[in-house]
Amino acid sequence: MSQEIRNIEPKALWNKFANLNAVPRPSKKEERVVAFIKDFGNNLGLEVIEDEVQNVIIRKPATAGMENRKPIVLQGHLDMVHQKNADTVFDFDTQGIEMYVDGDWVRAKGTTLGADNGLGVAAIMAVLESTDIAHPAIEALFTIDEETGMTGAMNLQGGVLKGEILLNLDTEEDDEIDIGCAGGIDVTAEAEYDEEETPEHSVGYSITVKGLKGGHSGMDIHKGLGNANKIMNRLLFDGFDNFGLQISEIQGGSLRNAIPRESVAKVIIASVYDEAFVFDMQQIVNEIKAELKTTEPNLEIVFEKLEKLPAKVMPPMAQYYFVRSMATATNGVHRMSADFDNLVETSNNIAKVMVGNGKLVVQCLTRSSVESAKFDLANDLRSAFELMGCEVELSGSYPGWAPNPDSAILKVLVPVYENLFSEKPKVVACHAGLECGILGANYPDMDMISFGPTIQGAHSPDERASIVSSQKFWKFLVEILANIPVK
């Protein structure tokens, strides 16, 4: 890891982030980072608690003169989204993130950076270790598995936390103070089909969609970015009728909360249509690139002839229903909020598509700040896939965080921000999933707010964190701690 990361100001923040990023921390495999955080707290001589699902709570008493202030919870999640470029050789289970400085940005070499939510976690660690920052009594809550199910927040028992105010450090624009967020639900469609032998007089092709930006399926869903799974389906849509195209396999996307950047399919076509297939596909490629030239300038769609034909392919009727269900399934923004300007209310991300060996799986993440709308869109998707014969499971539902514009801690943060930075912050709700709504179910009287440094490209290998913004974030956090109201 470059030493230049550790020399960035504030060093207390960036050194903790560098230490954290040296520890592999994939969702659902947090054992090492949980041990790391527990060791950190124990080495400071603080009270450390690990609950039944591996959430970690570290308690630090108030500093001198702050004992009469309301106790607070500083909260962040330990896991990170693991995404890498196709040509990057990296093992997230064993390697620490390789970071470098690029102007005002800290980036990772071909992988996600882990600033989401690593910078929030690092800030909490720096406060816990500090000896010169005024603060009330603190409970640092480090949750697990936020990115793939929020199971840490869901399983945190009521009564464990004593704090009256929760500061969630997982927002990604430094001029925003979040007071609400969307909920989500996983939609998974599965089906089996009887493969058939590849017809004689066939030619095999691999089709690769790559070069897309990807990104956070909540925060970036409104940006008109390309979805590799939808693009691939468009290429395959009329393939059988026009060229005798039959699908052998598809591998598209990865995580539900990441807009898919890549998809690879292996197909066969009737050899008599070989030249026509290449010509017509190039026309479609040109159309797609023209449509996405502004949002996806690096999109590549590559056709390569296979040296060896696939032995098995999907039958024409199964393929017919599959590609039409995929075309019907909503992807992207479904509805904008009527209550907040420029806020996505309901959306869906067709995140992962796997076809081959007689089985197909489609994984989606549906989000909404309106609970009924979330289930309505989930049922739309369920219908699209059930009509082709899929078994559809709705799982992992978590609630949104209802905005509270009368929040007492919000009335503290806004003037603190204005005094520090001579401008008004944006008080917003976001389309991402924050843990506040879930935590609020067991702590309904806890006043909650969310803020953080500017992070762009989260959930993609283009993830980057602003150095100047991190300094602003740290200054804001320290000042908030000094201004927590009295009990």
How would you characterize this protein structure?
This protein has 487 residues and is of the alpha+beta class. Helices cover 30% and strands 28% of the residues. It has 13 helices and 25 strands. It has helices at residues 3-6, 11-21, 31-43, 115-129, 151-154, 228-236, 239-243, 274-291, 316-328, 371-386, 408-421, 436-442, 467-482; strands at 47-50, 56-60, 72-77, 99-102, 105-108, 138-143, 165-168, 176-181, 183-192, 196-197, 202-210, 215-216, 246-253, 258-259, 263-270, 300-305, 312-313, 332-336, 344-356, 359-368, 391-398, 426-430, 447-450, 455-456, 464-466. Strands 9, 11, 13, 15, 16, 18, 19, 20 and 21 form a nine-stranded antiparallel sheet that branches. A six-stranded mixed sheet has the order 1-2-6-3-7-23, covered by helices on one side. Helix 2 (11-21) crosses helix 4 and helix 11 packs across helix 13.
End-to-end CA span: 44 Å
Question: Strand portion, in percent?
Answer: 25-35%
Rough shape?
elongated
The residue-averaged pLDDT reads 96
Counting helices, strands and paired strands, the structural category is alpha+beta
Number of contiguous helices: 13
Number of strands: 25
The biggest beta sheet is recorded as:
9 strands, antiparallel
Please render the helix and strand layout as text.
Layout: H1 3-6, H2 11-21, H3 31-43, E1 47-50, E2 56-60, E3 72-77, E4 99-102, E5 105-108, H4 115-129, E6 138-143, H5 151-154, E7 165-168, E8 176-181, E9 183-192, E10 196-197, E11 202-210, E12 215-216, H6 228-236, H7 239-243, E13 246-253, E14 258-259, E15 263-270, H8 274-291, E16 300-305, E17 312-313, H9 316-328, E18 332-336, E19 344-356, E20 359-368, H10 371-386, E21 391-398, H11 408-421, E22 426-430, H12 436-442, E23 447-450, E24 455-456, E25 464-466, H13 467-482
Parallel strand pairs: 3-6, 3-7, 7-23, 8-22
Antiparallel strand pairs: 1-2, 2-6, 4-5, 5-25, 9-20, 9-21, 10-17, 11-15, 11-16, 12-14, 13-15, 13-19, 18-19, 19-20, 24-25
